[in-house]
Amino acid sequence: MTAAAAALPILLVEDTPSLQFLYAAMLTGAGHAVLRAGTAAEGAAAFRAGRPRIVLLDLALPDGDGLTLMAEMLAAAPETAVIVITANGSIRNAVEAMRRGAHDFVVKPFDEARLLGAVETAAAAFPAAAALPAATAALPAPAPGGIFGSSPAMQELLARIGSVARSMATVFITGESGTGKELAAEAVHARSPRAAGPFIALNCGAIPVELLESEVFGHLRGAFTGAIADKPGAAAVADGGTLFLDEVCELDLALQTKLLRFLQTSMIQPVGATRPRKVSVRIVCATNRDPMAAVRARQFREDLYYRLHVIPLHMPPLRERGDDVVEIAAATLARYAAEEGKRFEGFAPEVLELFRRYPWPGNIRELLNVLRNVAVLSDVGRVGLASLPADLLRFAGRAAPATPAAAAAEAPAGVPAGAAGEGLGGLVGRTLAEIEQIVIEATIARCGGSVPRAARILDVAPSTLYRKREGWQRGPG
Predict the structure, then answer these.
(1) Domain limits at 52?
(2) For the chain, what percentages of helix, strand and coil (3-state, to nearest 5) are there?
(3) Tens-digit pLDDT profile for residues 158-211
(4) How deeply is 377 buried, as exposed, middle or buried, from its count of CB atoms within 10 A (0-12, 13-18, 19+)?
(5) Quick check: helix, strand or coil at residue 220?
(6) 0.85 cut: is pTM over it?
(7) Which of 16, 433, 448, 467 has a CA between 20 and 30 Å from the CA of residue 80?
(8) CATH at 463
(9) Structural element, H or E, at residue 10
(10) Has residue 118 been placed in a domain?
(11) Are residues 295 and 386 in the same domain?
């Protein structure tokens, strides 16, 4: 790679998640900082926020025409080098893009050498791209929740993912809740020879125990009450690809035995079937618990642990990732602002300093919640401390109005929110559903983002909390 092409900030606009991960991994592996977007709206917002001089642009986007987006970019910054990504059957569109000002195009599927060659050629043709201001070069942020970052911890992780992806060995990902373990699993899949196959994710803590075997291995019609049709399990659906078992330490012990047999034989037998059949599946699993502590507590089989724990990957918490928090915040705010129809002018210096100091117990998931709050409730302009939620203001030493969520979080253990004092007034007048959400989210926050731990405190199944949170995220209807 030439000096002109080194460490360029590049905007990648690609709507297929697996391809987005793959292309971004190729670029970051070559030393480039990558700002990612999955739609035309996200791409436009990211371009306005970062003004990268090189753009990799898929023409087929779910919410708009890539040619129109390219025209807008070139009108705003004619010095931009746009490299069009197109499918084999759409070369005519690529030619049209060249006529309208695109610098180059690459045709899917393409290899790493072709992609990096196109970027290097663009860097040589547009030398200004190598001399961006430091403020802009500091925006190699991933898409919201993404695993990519420029910190040493993330660069080491990405290099390890690139090394292990090519093998068939089982990968065991550990890390606190909210650090992006599923995204790491997707990155392993996207860089593997199985990238064209399915990636199937199964949250072992979100499914009732009595349904887990059917979810993993499937069932035949009539196998049990309510089995009105054949159902392929996750292992069968993932045939030829990757099966990701999240929160694997929450598996019932009886199912752990069957999973161990599956790992040893690659054979699955749906509930109600008389004969097993063979599948080809790569296993990636994850947990936010200490797996060896679960083994010592006899909650996780030791032989299954050693069968799964072949290649360990650890997702570092956000508080150990340095300025990655700033990079992620910048890209996420641009995305959320586009969704809310607003335009922010970045963050005040004191906000960025607070982001660096705050421990982020909920990791990236907590950061996304903070930025969503800012995007929804704040006016346009520069984001200052006054725009931040109460928890962060208290950490910064600023007084903040008491909120029901804060009252719930500060209530002594075992005491309902507000029952310890005046906080009850913040709940009066709210619906029971709202109060339930406040208490559940506050308990999860107190448990460092761990849903299983919160479920034990609230005396409900983890699957109950997962279903409720999914319902809140979807909203009414």
Answers:
(1) 3-137
(2) 50, 15, 35
(3) 888 888 988 889 999 999 988 989 989 988 988 888 888 899 998 888 777 777
(4) exposed
(5) coil
(6) no
(7) 16
(8) 1.10.8.60
(9) strand 9-13
(10) yes
(11) no
